[in-house]
């Protein structure tokens, strides 16, 4: 995404004389940013997301700078006459991929989301959770520059929820804008660049509460570059804090959902950075020292992740 997406004086109502659901909305989404939209039931969150996704037009006002956009709707029409792969390949082609590239991307996303076993199943026969995986896969297929997620985590299992959080981190790291609504306040807590609440037809910018930054799970990555190397911009952008701990050594504190993307980014640097340690900090009120490698309950899997990313980056 190169330019901002801008909403200026946007209003939406349904029917000629229906009440205004949204009015006077001014909003700018910049490349590489994550935006959360909140609000009580029926306030107009989905209406706003449909406008952002470009599948609905404003009744008044204008929207400019639309990039390549993908959308996971709140309700996905699951009973379509396709298999999961057939549907995704078709949509990939609509998004401009060749059929071969679309089929490859479809298989890759179904695999990542844990739905590879259902690739050849007719969509009408899929469980709610599996069809939600197809809904998510169709939006991620063609690496969109704007990704709009309306309750996209609902119905996914734990592993697929984490995978979608990782996909969000990958998209923003690649310079895309991502906007999401989710009923769970812990979803990507502390990560969004901006949070807006829809109330009374308007959009109110909310200042992120400091507590949500502290409560979201974070991972601390210690890494070494050459002594005079600055922390890479992409790694710094993913992190909530970046500290120089010694010449050439930097400590990145990153939301857990972003840790894989951070590691990949460090190892992908030329020359690559060396990852010294990966651990999760203990809560502030813990009586033990403030950080411990043992405290990271998946320290081993994290080491494995570093090793596999290192071999991937050498290929
Ligand atoms: N297609 C439509 N036709 C008529 N009215 C609609 C339509 N879509 C939404 N509305 C109305 O617009 C208002 C906002 O609905 P919207 O679904 O955008 O809210 P929401 O905040 O996403 O709600 P929820 O949290 O329940 O999903 C509601 O009063 C709803 O009834």
TrEMBL record:
Bias-annotated ranges (Low complexity): 289-303
Region Disordered, residue ranges: 223-244, 273-315
Stored InterPro entries: AAA+_ATPase (IPR003593), ABC_transporter-like_ATP-bd (IPR003439), ABC_Transporter_VariousFunc (IPR051782), P-loop_NTPase (IPR027417)
Ranges of residues in domain ABC transporter: 5-223
SUPFAM superfamilies from the UniProt entry: P-loop containing nucleoside triphosphate hydrolases
Domain of life the protein comes from: Bacteria
One GO molecular-function entry: ATP binding
Keyword list, A-Z: ATP-binding, Nucleotide-binding, Transport
Protein biosynthesis keyword on record: no
Name the record gives this protein: ATP-binding cassette domain-containing protein
